[in-house]
User: What shape does this take?
Amino acid sequence: MAISFNFFLLLLLLAGSTTAFPNFFLSPSFYSNTCPQLHGIVRSAMKEAIRNDTTIGAGLLRLFFHDCFAGGCDASVLLDDTRASVGEKTAPANKNSLRGFEVIDLIKKRVEAACPQTVSCADILALAARDSVGLLHGPRWNVRLGRSDATAAEQNAASFSLPGPGSSLPILLTMFAAKGLDARDMVALSGAHTLGRSHCSLYRERIHGDSNIDPAFSAALRSTCPLGSGNATVTAPFDRTPGRFDNMYFKDLVAFRGLLKSDQALYGGSLVDPLVEIYSEDNAAFGRDFAAAMVKLGDLSPLFGLPGEIRLNCRKVNA
Assistant: This one.
């Protein structure tokens, strides 16, 4: 007998609660004795970075998500290609979209000067993502630390395990459930799109073909993102306050102004509609759930000790 769509979604709503387990090796106080300056160094660098470019916060948050979702939170996404191996940066979901590598390089340089060979690039990335949100008026949370860095990239995982701009709700729920993240985590983490912008090529199909879209919204976007090849440099913000971490993303979904198909897939006749509506009305609830989901995201398959390492340069493995 065929399983109903709503029952299928209900199963996925419950899936994450039974597959995610706390990681007892990670701790917010991991570097309290070995690098007590760490949090101050990262936050100071992130203040500088955001002051110079308010969009970099979105880049670092995306960088952390793409690292964790493809093989675990091990800084493998930071590795450059070599003659011997292809990294994750050129995977379809990452190519021409990931940014913020130079900020991580700067933070790593300062951390190495203060605490040599002590703090992993994976932990630096986790802290930079948290501070990106906090400095843009979003929530803060205790980042659990103690990860090692990968010595190889996860190119295949980066190519096939990351959600795409055209992902449907069942696909999104399935991909997140496979990582031990439930529907609430998925919807809250999707709210990261309250920051940043997307390229025309990723939303062109939606604004020219979808019916579940506000007509005035789509008309305004079509003027700069026409059918055909269009202008590769054209971008649009995910919501009306792209430089502020708030619940405007969910307000826009309720108004059918989601930029990507995968954004609007969260609202418009599904079991996650109530979550979207709650977040659209209660910014504090969104902030709390986003912070909790980021802690769970940071627990995805971290490395401890060998075969990992503490990279001296986040872009390459140690010699």
User: Anything to note?
Assistant: The longest strand covers residues 197-199. The chain has two domains: 21-163, 180-293. The radius of gyration is 19 Å.
